[in-house]
Design brief:
seven-stranded antiparallel β-sheet; Jelly Rolls; mainly beta; globular; eight-stranded mixed β-sheet
Amino acid sequence: METASGHIILHPARERGHAQHGWLDSYHSFSFAGYYDPDKVHFGALRVLNDDTVAAGMGFGTHPHDNMEIISIPLSGDLEHRDSMGNTTVIRHGDIQVMSAGTGVQHSEYNKNADKEVKFLQIWVFPNKRNVAPRYDQITLDPAARHNKLQQILSPNANDEGVWIHQDAWFHLGHFDKDQAFGHTLNKPGNGIYAFVLEGSFRVHGKELGRRDAAGISDVTNIELESLEDGSEILLMEVPMTFTY
């Protein structure tokens, strides 16, 4: 959809791919595993956005990845991570986890608790460098620091707030009261923004989005947003629209 201020694509929550495996309830914003939509393969360098719920005590067994930047954002519960680099960690709400798969890594992810489910976002971004040495990082951020403002959780720079990846990408999270209007300026010309509503509702670049709705916006230098109800949460993912992989 062309507008006077850029190009926008709308991805309603109800149109996402869905896989129910009993132990795993997963919604796919982009083509993944058994779900394929030729119009939803990726948004620029953003390749995967999975909204996963894992049953108590269950999880993903050891499996390989390579040449992908993998970000996990826990929404509730405790997720245990183990990998071939020797890391054994638990990530919880407020944590951000990143893994540069590079030349190759194997890992597993399990719900650490036997009495409650875990919910998290798994995000894959195409890197701007292939065959890098695999790396792992995990940080804890203060969710209160994103009340009525955007908190940076990821960038290309190791010295900036949040984790870093091998790509010119910036992620922000925000938690807003009703009727909060705010803007966001892109960090790099030619990048686009994929806005994903976690909770509540927003007006994003003139379009109203509800819970788990998304919009991909390109050919802009900044976007305008407004929260439409109390407790609204949003994830903004700025990524290159053209890249070499």
